[in-house]
Design brief:
heterotrimer, A alpha/beta (284), B alpha/beta (261), C alpha+beta (369), B: 261 residues, alpha/beta, Rossmann fold, 12 helices, 5 strands, 39% helix, globular, C: alpha+beta, 2 domains, 8-stranded mixed β-sheet, 4-stranded antiparallel β-sheet
C-alpha cells in the first residue's frame, strides 16, 4: 500500500554559512559569528533562546552547537564552541571567510513567557552559560516583565569565565550577577565553591513565584534541581538544558534518547518534572 | 600552497609476515595521493632510503619476540611523535603468540639445527606491552581503507576513527544471514571488532576474530552457548587462539576453557 | 468507500501473472527466496524463485530450513530479513559537499530508488511498516529517503497459515491476520489463493488478472488455514500496563542478569523490523575537496552509540539491553503512540545466545526479591 504524503523541506539539507568574525573567549573557547551566504535564508532565519544548530565541517563531521547569539540578531549568529573533538578543533583552526554547513534551528527553547512576573534565576556551569546567553539578552530587553533577574554562574577558574566583558553591562541593566569558581587564583576575591552553594544562599522573596533556568554539567543540574526544590520552588518552574550524542537533530537517529524523550526534538530544554524520573538513573 | 613541511613517516617491522605493510603498498588508488602528503622517511619494504628521524608518525608492524626487538621498539618510540601499531601481531602478539602457551625451548630445539645461535624471548607480545602506543589499527591483515583513513586523518589534523562494533553489525548491513543461528556454525563475529567487512560469514565460514575482541565483548556468554550447542571445548580453544589469541579477552576465555576441560 | 470488495480466487498457475503485471508496471518485485540457508527477501521475477515446499523451524537462537510435505509457496513464517532493508536501507548517502571557489556547497545526494512491490508481507510486518511510517513520516520531520521508497511501494500481503515457536503477534495484537496496510492480501490454498483487496490500486491490479469468484468451501478452507496459525502461537508477552511497569523497574536485578548473557552484538536490533537507529558518518576524499554524509544502520547496543564528550552514557551491557527493551516496549508508546514491538519473534530467533524478550518481560514483572 503506497502512501500519499506531501513532500516537505529536506531536514538533512544544509545552508552554506560563512565565518564573519571570531571572538576568542577563554582558552580553547571562541565565539563564531556565522552569516548565511543566501540573504533570503538570512532574512527568514529565526531562533528561540536555548535552541541549537547543527554545524557541519565537510571532511570532519557535524556537531550540535547552541546559539549563543541575541535572538534578535539578523546578520550574523553567534555560536560559542569549545575545541574538544575533531569537528570543533577544526573549527578552531578556521579563519574568517571560511565556509561551513548549517542545519537548524532545532529543539525546544527556554520558556521565558512562563516566567513572566517571576523572580528569574539563571544557573550556569562552565560552557552552559552559552545556551543561556540568548535568554539573558531577551530577559534584559523585557526586564520590566520580570520581578527580578539573577545569574548564578560557576566557572572552573577565574580565567575560564565566559563573556566576562559583558557581565558589567548585564549588572548595570538590572541583572544581579554572582560568580563562583571551583579553584581560585591569588587575585580572586569572589566566591569559591560549586554554583549550588550560591543558590542555597540566594534570598528568595517568594519561591512560589520563582523560575529557575539551568544549564551545565548533568551532575551540577541534579544538585541545582535538588537545592531549588528544597527552597520551595515548584518543580514546574525549574527548567534545564540537556546534552546527549546527536547525529540527526530531527528525532530519527535514536542516539539522544533519555527515557521516553529525544533530547534533540523534545529538548534540549525540559521542564524538570518531565525528566525527573530519569535524571537519577545511572546509565539511562 | 601551504609551506608546512610534510609529516615524516617511518614504517617499521617486527615479528610479522609483512602483510600489513603490503596493505599500504597495495592501496594503489590512494598511494600516489598519500605519497604526496607525507614524507616517507623509513620504509625498507618500499625504499632503500634511511632517515633516522625523528618521525611524526611511526607505523609499527609485528610483535616483540627477541631481546633486540624489545630494545629497538624503545628506540623507535623515542624518535616518534605518534606511534601507531598496525595489525594483529603488533596489537595482540599475532599467531606467533601461540608459543606463549607452549614450551618455547622445545620449539627452538626442534626447528633449528644449532639452537644455541638463536636468541629469542619465550613469548610473543604486543608492542603496547613495551612502549606507549598512540593508536592501534587492528586486523590480520589490517584493512587498507582504515590505514588510509588513519594516515589522512593525522595529516588533516583529526583523530582517526575506526569502528569498534561487532562483526555482526556488518553482516546485517550487507544482508548476510547469521551462520551460527541458521547453520550452527561456530563464529566469533559477535565478540569480534568490525573492520574486515564481514567477509567470512558471507562464505559460510565462522569469523576467525582477525580484528580482535570488540569493545566490551561478552566472550564468556558466547562460548557457553557454543559449548551448549555441541562445539567441544578444545575446538573453542582453537577458535579463540588464532591471530588475536593473546588479546586479553580471548586469552582469558581460552585459558578458562582449558582449565574447565 | 467502506464496502470492501468481495475476495476472489487466483489460481496458483496465475500467480506468475501477478509478478509479471507488477514488473510491467515498473515495479521491482521483492519476495521470499532461498539463500544462505534461510528464506530471505530479494529480487524475484518468477514463481520458481519462491521457497516452494520449504518451511522454517525456529527457536531461541536457532533457525533451520526444512522440507514441507507439500509444495506450498508461502509455507513458512518470517526470516532473518525484513522489508526495512528496502524502505530504510542499511547505507544511504544523505548529502554531498564540494569545495568550490565560493566555499563549501552542499546538496542532497542523488537518490532514485526503484518502485518496490513487496510480495509476501506478513501481518506483523505490515504492523512494522506502520510503526516505521510513524517514525519516519508522521513526526515533526519527514525523512526523505524513507519517503521516496515508501510512497511508491505496492504491498501484496500473505496471511500466515502456520506460526513459529518464537511468534507472539497475538500478544502484540498485530496478527496473524492481515487487516490493513496492504494493496492485496493472499491466503494460500491448495491450488491457489484467496485474494482480498485493500486499496483501489490493489483492485486495479487484480482486474488485470484472471480471477474467479470464490466458493464458500474455499473461503472456509482459507479461514481454517488462518486459524491454524492462531492456534500454533504459544508464546505470550503480557502487555498490561507495560509502559509504567518497565519505566518504574529501571533498577530491577534482572537487567544485570540479562546483561551477563547478552553479547551486545546488535543482532536483535538489526533483525528487528522496527528498530530505526542510525549513525551519520563523514566519508571524504583524500584531497579534502569532496565529502559525503552517509547514514548507516546503528544500534543502541554499541558502546559508542551514547558517546558524549565525557565518555559513553551507557557504559555496560546491562544499561544498553535496558535501553533497547524499555524503548521497544515502553518509551516507544510515549514517542509514537504504539509499541515498537510487533511480536515477529526475530530478536528471539536471531539472538546467538537465544535471549527471549517475552521471558525477560515476564521476569521483570516479578518483584525483585
Amino acid at each position: 500500500m503506497s502512501l500519499a504524503s506531501t513532500p516537505t523541506a529536506d531536514p538533512w539539507g544544509y545552508h552554506t554559512v560563512r565565518i564573519h568574525e571570531i571572538t576568542p573567549e577563554v582558552a580553547d573557547v571562541a565565539t563564531y559569528h556565522l552569516g548565511f551566504d543566501d540573504s533570503a535564508v538570512a532574512a527568514a532565519y529565526r531562533f528561540q533562546p536555548g535552541q541549537f544548530n547543527m554545524l557541519y565541517l565537510p571532511g570532519f563531521g557535524e556537531v550540535p552547537i547552541s546559539l549563543s547569539a541575541d535572538p534578535r540578531s539578523s546578520t550574523t549568529w553567534a555560536h560559542t564552541v569549545r575545541a574538544v573533538g575533531n569537528v570543533t578543533q577544526k573549527l578552531a583552526r578556521s579563519k574568517v571567510g571560511d565556509t561551513l554547513g548549517l542545519r537548524g534551528p532545532f529543539g525546544s527553547g527556554w520558556p521565558l513567557h512562563t516566567a513572566e512576573g517571576h523572580d528569574v534565576v539563571l544557573v550556569a556551569g562552565g560552557l552552559g552559560i552559552a545556551p543561556l546567553r540568548p535568554a539573558i539578552y531577551e530577559l534584559l530587553r523585557q526586564a520590566n516583565r520580570f520581578r527580578s533577574l539573577t545569574l548564578l554562574y560557576g566557572s572552573r577558574t577565574p580565567d575560564t569565565i565566559l563573556f566576562e566583558h559583558e557581565l558589567p553591562e548585564w549588572s548595570q541593566r538590572g541583572m544581579s550577577v554572582q560568580i563562583t569558581v571551583d579553584r581560585a587564583s591569588p587575585t580572586w576575591s569572589g566566591h569559591v565553591g560549586v554554583v549550588t552553594l550560591l543558590l542555597d544562599r540566594l534570598p528568595l522573596s517568594d519561591p512560589q513565584q520563582t523560575s529557575v533556568l539551568m544549564c551545565g554539567p548533568e551532575v551540577m543540574m541534579r544538585f541545582v534541581g535538588k537545592s531549588a526544590l528544597a527552597r520551595g520552588i515548584p518543580e514546574s518552574q525549574l527548567w534545564l538544558s540537556m546534552e546527549r550524542n546527536m547525529q540527526c537533530a530531527i528525532g530519527l537517529c535514536g542516539h539522544c534518547q533519555l527515557g521516553p524523550t529525544f533530547i534533540c526534538k523534545d529538548g534540549p530544554v525540559y521542564r524538570h518534572d518531565h525528566l525527573a524520573p530519569f535524571l537519577n538513573v545511572e546509565g539511562l | 600552497m601551504s609551506a608546512k613541511p610534510k609529516p615524516k613517516v617511518g614504517v617499521f617491522k617486527f615479528a610479522s609476515c609483512d602483510g600489513c605493510q603490503l596493505s599500504l603498498l597495495s592501496a594503489e588508488d590512494e598511494l600516489l595521493t598519500i605519497a604526496g602528503k607525507i614524507d616517507i622517511a623509513y620504509f625498507l619494504e618500499a625504499t632503500s632510503r634511511i632517515d633516522e628521524g625523528p618521525y611524526d608518525i611511526a607505523l609499527v608492524e609485528g610483535s616483540i619476540t627477541t631481546p633486540t626487538d624489545a630494545l629497538r621498539i624503545r628506540d623507535i618510540r623515542q624518535r616518534s611523535k605518534f606511534l601507531i601499531t598496525i595489525g594483529a601481531c603488533a596489537t595482540a602478539g599475532g599467531i606467533q603468540a601461540l608459543r606463549n602457551w607452549a614450551d618455547h625451548d622445545e620449539f627452538v630445539r626442534a626447528v633449528y639445527a644449532r639452537p644455541e645461535y638463536i636468541e629469542t624471548l619465550a613469548t610473543s607480545t604486543p608492542i603496547a606491552e613495551h612502549v606507549p602506543v598512540d593508536f592501534e589499527l587492528r586486523g590480520c591483515p589490517i584493512n587498507r581503507h582504515q590505514l588510509v583513513e588513519v594516515i589522512v586523518s593525522l595529516v588533516a589534523g583529526r583523530k582517526p576513527k575506526t569502528p569498534s562494533h561487532s562483526v555482526c553489525l556488518d553482516c546485517k548491513r550487507r544482508g548476510t544471514v547469521c551462520i551460527t543461528v541458521a547453520q550452527g556454525i561456530p563464529c566469533l563475529g559477535p565478540v569480534t571488532q568490525s573492520g574486515c567487512g564481514a567477509i567470512c560469514p558471507s562464505y559460510d565460514r565462522g569469523c576467525y576474530g582477525c580484528f580482535g575482541p570488540a569493545k566490551q565483548c561478552n566472550t564468556g556468554s558466547l562460548c557457553q552457548q557454543l559449548l551448549a550447542d555441541g562445539t567441544p571445548a578444545p575446538e573453542l580453544v582453537q577458535l579463540l587462539r588464532n591471530y588475536n589469541g593473546y588479546a586479553p579477552e580471548f586469552r582469558q576465555q581460552s585459558e578458562q576453557l582449558e582449565t574447565q576441560a | 468507500m467502506n464496502s470492501t470488495p468481495p475476495s476472489l480466487f487466483l489460481a496458483r498457475s496465475n500467480l506468475q501473472l501477478l509478478i509479471d503485471r507488477l514488473a510491467e508496471q515498473g515495479f521491482e518485485v521483492i519476495g521470499p527466496t532461498i539463500s544462505q540457508a534461510a528464506i530471505v527477501y530479494d529480487r524475484i521475477s518468477s514463481v520458481s524463485d519462491l521457497p516452494q515446499g520449504w518451511t522454517d523451524r525456529q527457536a531461541p537462537g536457532e533457525y533451520r530450513l526444512e522440507r514441507r510435505d507439500d509444495d506450498q509457496l508461502f509455507g513458512y513464517v518470517v526470516g532473518p530479513h525484513s522489508w526495512k532493508r528496502y524502505l530504510f536501507p542499511p547505507l544511504t548517502t544523505l548529502t554531498t559537499a564540494d569545495l568550490t571557489t565560493n566555499g563549501w556547497q552542499m546538496r542532497a545526494a542523488d537518490d532514485n530508488p526503484p518502485k518496490y512491490a513487496f510480495l509476501g508481507v506478513r501481518a506483523c510486518e505490515l504492523a512494522a511498516i506502520r510503526v516505521q511510517d510513524k517514525v519516519f513520516l508522521e513526526g515533526a520531520y519527514v525523512d526523505p529517503v524513507y519517503q521516496r521508497r515508501r510512497q511508491n511501494a505496492f504491498i501484496v500481503a500473505v496471511n500466515c497459515t502456520q506460526a513459529a515457536s518464537t511468534c507472539f503477534c497475538t500478544s502484540m495484537e498485530t496478527g496473524p491476520r492481515c487487516r490493513s496496510g496492504f494493496d492485496l492480501a493472499l491466503t494460500e490454498l491448495f491450488d491457489g489463493f484467496e485474494v482480498e483487496v485493500g486499496t483501489p490500486a490493489g483492485a486495479e491490479l487484480l482486474r488485470q488478472l484472471p480471477t474467479t469468484s470464490i466458493a464458500e468451501q474455499q473461503l472456509a478452507d482459507a479461514e481454517q488455514r488462518r486459524q491454524q496459525a492462531v492456534d500454533q502461537i504459544t508464546r505470550k508477552l503480557d502487555t498490561e500496563g507495560i509502559r509504567d511497569l518497565l519505566l518504574t523497574r529501571l533498577n530491577h536485578p534482572r537487567w544485570e542478569e540479562v546483561g551477563q548473557r547478552c553479547l551486545s552484538c546488535t543482532n536483535c536490533t538489526m533483525v528487528c523490523p522496527t528498530c530505526f537507529c542510525s549513525s551519520v558518518e563523514e566519508v571524504s576524499d583524500l584531497e579534502g575537496q569532496h565529502s559525503e554524509r552517509e547514514r548507516r544502520w546503528d544500534s543502541c547496543f554499541n558502546l559508542d552509540f551514547s558517546y558524549v564528550s565525557g565518555g559513553p552514557v551507557r557504559r555496560d551491557i546491562r544499561s544498553r539491553y535496558r535501553q533497547w527493551l524499555t524503548h521497544k516496549l515502553a518509551s516507544w508508546i510515549d514517542q509514537f503512540g504504539s509499541s515498537g514491538c510487533v511480536g515477529c519473534g526475530r530478536c528471539i530467533t536471531w539472538c546467538p545466545v537465544g535471549i527471549d524478550i517475552t521471558e525477560e518481560v515476564a521476569a521483570l514483572r516479578k518483584e525483585a526479591p
